[in-house]
Amino acid sequence: TVDTADFKVADITLAEAGRHQIRLAEHEMPGLMSLRAEFGASQPLRGARIAGSLHMTVQTAVLIETLVTLGAQVRWASCNIFSTQDEAAAAVVVGSGTVDDPRGVPVFAWKGETLADYWWTAQQILSWPGADADPQLGPNMILDDGGDATMLLHKGVEFEAAGEVPAGTDADPQEHRVFLDVLRETLALDGQKWTRVARGIRGVTEETTTGVMRLYQLAEQGKLLFPAINVNDSVTKSKFDNKYGIRHSLPDGLNRATDVLMGGKVAVVCGYGDVGKGAAEALRGQGSRVIVTEIDPICALQAAMDGYQVAKLESVLSEGHIFITTTGNKGVITAAHMSEMRNKAIVGNIGHFDNEIDMAGLARIPGIRKVEIKPQVHEWVFDDGESGGGASGHGASGERDEPRSIIVLSEGRLLNLGNATGHPSFVMSNSFANQTIAQIEIFSKHGQTDADGNPPYRNEVYVLPKILDEKVARLHLAALDVELTELSQEQAEYLGLDVAGPYKSEHYRY
Ligand code: NAI
User: Which residue is closest in CA terms to ligand 1's atom 32?
Assistant: First the structure.
């Protein structure tokens, strides 16, 4: 039974609705379901206490219940204030119990958290009942998306060693100032909490590009406190979820938010990495004329070869009807850029953090007004006395004389999860099969040593071996009626391969 004081969701009575969706999602997640069949009996995660921070969607519910099926205890929060599907969160809490007697997993997530709520939920997944008195009861694994749970722990340890939390400055993003305030409160209550928790952690498995970048930075500085597996760079993650997932969920987000016809419009996609490639393909598929911006000559050339115009954002501000950031970088669309856009241009981000679009700068433009069209859809009305295209002079003829405005989705946070429900189950089955295998790897190999006395994982960042990556793909073939050709022994020898794989060298790029 889940202690009724030990979870927080929007409305637990949504559990039944959530359960129906989870049941259908299971059918579309053959990777996770076959891992349940393969490992259900041997329980490789028995004894694992996993603190999970990842968008609390229907697909994540199937992941959580897979981890539990493999023996783990789990506490969960979302890694974004807008991405929770409340019915999925409720269903996970209820589990096999009832609304009055929940027996699932403690979830701390609801759609529309404040920043203070967000950091509270992050602390809840790392604060296990009884662990303050007995650290053995605390979490021993982290499953992260974007790295916030990992960052909370690393910063907590750093501040506890220093004995104080630095004062934020006005230049810090609001997000960071709220984070510092929350850690300051915890430090005042317990000066060793995060140090204790961190000592018990065997490792972290990280879902996304941005979180992985943060892990490599920590490892380079010698500051990483435990081993990490970079799930993102499994081929069956970043070349599938980031690309084909976005190809599905970007138009879904745009449609649910605005229902504006994409055909015929000019769509500007900032960044042509894995996410940008999926975004551009989706928009072109809807009949948009797509323009790409890039800083990397290789990706810029790829975009050109794929038939897209590649331009600087400044050159196409007045042309675009839709602007999507996919870079994982900061300050990509500035307030000055937005004030140059045509009337009713749609601006959205699909990268992990909201600093790709300068929302704070937009709010500071003199005279600007924010009108809520509906939750996660806002019109920003400029006070420049112009209409129908304004500064850029792109007014459609016949447009009413009204002030110029732009539409910003999900307040600059990832719009596929804020305005829609994120990636579909089948692609997430690939990502989450990698997550599950990575959790098993780190958890079960902890404490082992090889013949030379070396541990299999040090405080560094690893990717899963290719043979496991191929296994994840293999688990998804039957559902799509894929007939895979088998190498003959003779062919395998000719290529210098094993018939059972792996089939490519480590540096092959797919
Ligand atoms: P990536 O590294 O493959 O691609 C990012 C691209 O942006 C790179 O090619 C880079 O050269 C380019 N770029 C960087 N700064 C730029 C700038 N100022 N202007 C134009 N281009 C610029 O990374 P990936 O895997 O595509 O991920 C991008 C972001 O999306 C990350 O934050 C990642 O965490 C997030 N993500 C979001 C998902 C979602 O469901 N919304 C799913 C997967 C990843």
Answer: 328
Annotated domain spans of the chain = 12-239+423-445, 244-351+354-412
User: Would the CB of 414 count as within 6 Å of ligand 1?
Assistant: yes
CATH class name, domain 244-351+354-412:
alpha beta
DSSP 298: H
Mutate to test the pocket of ligand 1, among 145, 236, 242, 357 (most ligand atoms within 8 A of CB): 242
pLDDT digits (tens, 9 = 90+) for 245-257: 999 999 999 999 9
Q: Is the torsion defined by CA of 420, 425, 431, 432 positive or negative? A: positive
Q: What is the pLDDT of residues 84-107, one digit of tens each?
A: 999 999 999 999 999 999 999 999
- 388-399 tens-digit pLDDT: 544 444 445 556
Residue 409 pairs in a beta bridge with 377
**How many degrees, rounded to 5, is the angle at CA 418 between CA 74 and CA 83?**
5
Q: Which fold has domain 12-239+423-445?
A: Rossmann fold (3.40.50)
306 in Cβ contact with 269 (< 8 Å): no
Whether the complex's predicted ipTM is more than 0.85 is answered with yes
Substitution candidate for ligand 1 out of 59, 209, 355, 428 with most atoms within 8 A of CB? 209
